[in-house]
Amino acid sequence: MLWVKALHVISIIAWMAGLLYLPRLFVYHTEAEAGSAQSETFKVMERRLYRGIMTPAMIASWLFGLWLIIFYQAFDFGSGWAWVKLVMVVLLTGMHLFFGQIRKDFAEDRNQRPQRFFRMINEVPTLIMIVIVIMIIVRPF
Fold first, then answer.
1. What are the residues whose beta carbons fall under 8 Å from the beta carbon of 64, sequence distance 6 or more?
2. How far apart (Å, rounded) are the C-alpha atoms in residues 20 and 128?
3. Gap between the Cα atoms of 60 and 13, Å rounded
4. Which of 72, 76, 99, 124 lies 20 to 30 angstroms, CA to CA, from 45?
5. In the predicted model, is pLDDT for residue 58 greater than 90?
C-alpha cells in the first residue's frame, strides 16, 4: 500500500505543478503577438506541459487513487471529509479540461480572454489544493 500511496502523491505533485504553471504561461502568452516567434514558443511549451506532463499525471493520480480506494479501502464513504475531497478532485479534473480548451484556443490563435482572467484563474487550483490537503490531514468532519 505504501508504494501505491507514494506513487499517488508523486503523480498529484506533478499534476498540481502543471495546474499551477499552465495558467501562468497563458498570462505571458497573452502578451505575445499572434504568429510571432514568442507566441509559437508558448504554444509548444503549453502543449508539452499539458500533454506530456499534466495529462499523464492526472491519469496516474486517478488510477493510483482508485487503486487505494478499491484494494486498500482508503476512502471512508461515511465521512464528510472524504466526499469533499472527492468533489475537489473532480473540480481539479474540470479545471484540467478547461485549461486544455484554453490551450487549444491559444494554439489556434483564438484566445479572447485578457491577462487578468488568467491571473485570477491561476489561483483556483491552489484554493482547491488547500481544501484537499485540509480534508486529508485534518479530516474536520
1. 4, 5, 7, 8, 11
2. 11
3. 11
4. 124
5. yes
**Within 1-141, where are the H helices?**
2-31, 37-47, 55-72, 80-107, 115-121, 124-137
What are the cell numbers at 105? 484556443
Cell numbers of 102, please?
484554453
Q: Residue 55 in 3-state DSSP?
A: helix
CB-CB contact of 26 with 102 (8 Å):
yes
| CA distance linking residue 12 with residue 33, whole number of Å | 34
- Which candidate, 47, 27, 42, 55, places its Cα nearest to that of 118? 27
Q: How confident is the model at residue 119 (pLDDT cuts 50, 70, 90)?
A: very high
Q: Tell me, what amino acid is at 49? A: L
Residues 92, 80: Cα–Cα separation, whole Å: 19
d(CA 96, CA 73) in angstroms, rounded, equals 27
Q: What is the pLDDT of residue 75?
A: 83
